[in-house]
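Regression test case RT-17, inverse folding.

Input:
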């Protein structure tokens, strides 16, 4: 059997993001993906059994990318607030540069797709975000952060980044250092003890 072409597979996944960015996750269908990726419907089924598997693959693809960028330059030995600001800024920059992907991921986590492999997704999330869990643990031990459950704090942090990036993308928040600092500072106040 001929090996699958990773470039073609990436084009299929990129088509998912493009469609999500313009039509939302509900607008994703195999015919639309075929047209957007310029790949035959039959070829898509060579790479993915069905739409659900394709959407899951797209989710894991974007989660890998955003997680790698989120922790760029991360150092657990830095001051707690500095480490959180780096994560906040890295994530915000990624979201602003990859709008279609962020529309996809935001809608994905609010859809029924998240339930398809929920246990697997939670385990992978914890592994990929181990640095953030360790940072929260360190901040709580030092009495800097709220003693809320780590996952609760993570949801709050990601919610703040999502709100800031959506506000900037929709021109409700100006893309200025002062405004971004205000967004971070509000998030920081929300997780402090």
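Golden output:
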């Amino acid at each position: 059997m001929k090996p699958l072409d990773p470039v073609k597979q990436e084009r299929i996944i990129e088509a998912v993001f493009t469609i999500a960015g313009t039509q939302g996750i509900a607008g994703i269908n195999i015919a639309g993906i075929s047209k957007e990726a310029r790949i035959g419907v039959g070829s898509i089924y060579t790479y993915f059994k069905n739409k659900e598997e394709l959407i899951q693959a797209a989710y894991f693809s974007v989660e890998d990318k955003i997680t790698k960028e989120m922790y760029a330059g991360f150092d657990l030995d830095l001051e707690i607030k500095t480490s959180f600001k780096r994560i906040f800024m890295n994530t915000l920059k990624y979201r602003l540069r990859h709008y279609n992907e962020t529309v996809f991921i935001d809608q994905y986590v609010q859809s029924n797709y998240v339930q398809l492999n929920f246990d697997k997704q939670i385990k992978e999330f914890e592994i990929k975000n181990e640095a953030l869990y360790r940072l929260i643990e360190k901040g709580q031990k030092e009495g800097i952060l709220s003693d809320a459950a780590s996952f609760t704090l993570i949801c709050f942090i990601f919610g703040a980044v999502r709100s800031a990036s959506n506000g900037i993308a929709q021109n409700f928040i100006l893309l200025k250092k002062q405004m971004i600092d205000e967004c971070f500072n509000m998030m920081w106040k929300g997780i402090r003890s």
